[in-house]
Amino acid sequence: MPHSIVTEICEGVADCAQACPVGCIKQSPTTNSKGNIFFWINFEVCIDCGICLQVCPVEGAVLAEERRDLQRSS
Ligand code: SF4
Ligand code: SF4
Question: Which of 20, 38, 53 has most ligand 2 atoms within 8 Å of CB, for mutation?
């Protein structure tokens, strides 16, 4: 199952995007309600390696499941 980034928790640090081995973590063109640029995971490309979850410094920003209700892309 793909991983997800919780849009409203992400702080836009981008450690995950740099670490993802398949480059499926993208920057949103908009900001979340905290005013932060956020990132999102392309579920169709994610290989479920878990690296993004390991490197993200923000608790709760990455989930090891596909949550279309919590992750938006724009
Ligand atoms: S998910 Fe975590 S590492 Fe990735 S951009 Fe958001 S806060 Fe940064
Ligand atoms: S689980 Fe792996 S492939 Fe999927 S978004 Fe995270 S780092 Fe990328």
Answer: 20
Query: Which residues lie with the beta carbon below 6 Å from any ligand 2 atom?
Result: 3, 20, 22, 24-25, 41, 46-52
What is the identity of the amino acid at 66? E
pLDDT at position 1 is 81
pLDDT for 35 equals: 97
Q: Which residues of the chain have pLDDT under 70?
A: none
Residue 25's nearest CA partner among 60, 61, 33 is 61
* Measured CA distances, 3 to 35, 43, 73 (Å): 23, 7, 14
CATH of the domain spanning 4-63: 3.30.70.20
